[in-house]
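Hey, I'm writing a tutorial for new members on how sequence and structure tokens pair up, and I'd like a real worked example in the thread rather than a made-up one. If someone can provide the structure for the chain below, I'll link this post from the tutorial.
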Amino acid sequence: MSLRLGIFGGTFDPIHLGHLLLAEFARRLLRLDELVFVPARIPPHKGKVHTTPDQRCRMARLATEDNPHFRVSAVELERSGPSYTIDTLRTLRADGPSAAEHFLLMGADSARDLPSWKDHEDLLEESTVAVLNRPGVEVTDFDERVGERVRLLDTPRIEISSTEIRRLVRRGESVRYMVTPPVEEFIRSEGLYLS
């Protein structure tokens, strides 16, 4: 039986309980043996990033350290230039077990934009793209060439966002129950998101 490996990339600025809850739902629904969080070094489809790649990777490690099915890969931090998912998938495939089946997890908002991604056709051929629900995005929003080739997961809609967490931190308010305690402590000790 081949290893079922999930790949969950993102900016994770910061990683929050919504990310973790969706990842755990996806892990169970897809019967994944392992789920790899991949913080992006330079996300090509995002605006400003508020922390360094190393800080985001550290927060991801802190957030996932108590789940034996989760791990964090710094594969995108070790490359220069933008973090293209197809390159990450190929690197993880080359470095992992040869018989592994790869499942690429993404939010519905990202799946909607998939036709603009680098080598998106190859991405759809080389992995199973599993789409997680996101508030405000409907299945009908997908490009028809993508919509019929992805697997939609019935995951809960989580109303926690990294943007809101950064705003609360900047205002000196609590982010308890939005991030794990180790991530909350790291944000505080590093003075993240204050300006």
